[in-house]
Amino acid sequence: MRLNSTAFADGSAIPRRFTCDDADLSPPLNWSDAPTGTRSFTLLCDDPDAPAGTWHHWAAYDIPSTLTMLAEGAASDAEQLGFKQAINDFQRPGYGGPCPPRGHGLHHYHFRLLALSRLGARASSASIAANSLSMARSDGAPSVSFR
Q1: What is the spatial distance between Cα 25 and Cα 34, in angstroms, rounded to a whole number?
Q2: Over 80: is that where the pLDDT of 106 sits?
Q3: What's the pLDDT band for 4 if we cut at 50, 70, 90?
Q4: Backbone angles phi, psi at 17, to 5 degrees
């Protein structure tokens, strides 16, 4: 499976409009080559460089298998697009963009897309991540990440 963004390249800086310093929009993402039998996707965004450990910025789940992209700002249209979002580490549902503490150094943001052979609702981004990763491993489904 391949996961890409038209807003930034793998390893490059995330544009300001997708951060807490600006509009805090979820970035446009597209994917291809989902495994046969995919019933839903889970999309995760985490910052492993956060001072207190991995910070969960976004967990979108039960994304219909018919979707192959999320447009810029799709987090605000989740219900209309047919997916759910967990509570992130900012203690609100949906996307919370990069917002590292001033002077903390370089942070990396990992966007991961998981293809799942089943649907499964959970309440928090941490449990979504744990359960989705577990389901993906048991499914043998690939995950894709970039910074």
Answers
A1: 25
A2: yes
A3: very high
A4: -65, -15
Q: How far is CA 68 from the centre of its chain?
A: 14
Name the nearest CA neighbour of 24 among 109, 107, 96, 111: 96
Domain of 51, CATH number, reads 3.90.280.10
Q: What is the domain count for the chain?
A: 1
Q: Cβ–Cβ contacts within 10 Å for residue 79, how many?
A: 9
CA separation for the pair 75, 118 (Å, rounded):
22
What tens digit of pLDDT does each residue of 13-67 get? 999 999 999 999 999 999 999 999 999 999 999 999 999 999 999 999 999 999 9
- Residue 133 belongs to what domain range? 2-146
Tokens representing residue 69 in the block: 């992209």
